[in-house]
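User: I'll paste a sequence; please echo it back and then give the predicted structure.

Assistant: Echoing your sequence first, then the prediction.
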Amino acid sequence: MAIVAKTLRPCYHPVPLPARTAKPRILAAIPARYGSTRFPGKALAPLAGKPLVQHVYERVARAAYVDRVVVATDDARIVEAVEGFGGEARLTRPDHRSGSDRLAELVAALECDLVVNVQGDEPLVDPRAIAQAIEPFFLDAALQVSTLKTRIRDREALRNPNVVKVAADERGFAVNFFRVATVTPGVEINLDEEAYFKHLGLYVYTRECLLRFAELAPSPGEQREKLEQLRLLEHGIPIQVVETNYDSIGVDTPEDLARAEAVLKRVTTDEPFG
């Protein structure tokens, strides 16, 4: 594990691993592309005295069960910045279609059993939520992918296509991912009684599943909705969805960065979810 990870204390008290299950080798991988249409160079944007990617790295390093954290990037400047704060980074090809494809290149050259995909623009990612996404793998040897959901409390989020939603079955496996919830015009929704869930774009894959995912052709739903997780469902790969009270602020624009800075001034990862 990188130097910075050793200096950070865990902030989540995990459940004990079942005695029958050997702990898998768990790699947390952070895709961080320098080029961004709305916010070029955002991985290195200063946030509370550190580059944005450092916030992500340090929070991921505090997650229970994670053995190693690596940033996968297309730019030597990000490698230099990560190594500058004691982290580990690898240079990958610049032409990947998605962060998952970038991570597949990284993982092909590394030894691990599980891969946690944490987006490089999530400086407020909660280490406890990462652990929650990992834990189902200790109980289900056949599991290939897990992800997170959190309950929607804001009606406007139901109609906001930038807030991705997820529907799951009674066993907790994803049935669909979609951008806009179908709401009957004129009907008032009581979100305390009707449960809708936001999808949090954090995934845990088996190494084999991630490598296979990168080889699959984009599916019709993925191309229509611009949601790559639909590629998994449409190729018959089940996704376990774990409910969490955690939410976060993704940074896509300079305005998002300002919002994240304001939040960092008043909260810490030791506070309750939400």
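Confidence is low (pLDDT under 50) at residues 1-13. The domain at 3-14+22-264 is CATH 3.90.550.10 (Spore Coat Polysaccharide Biosynthesis Protein SpsA; Chain A).
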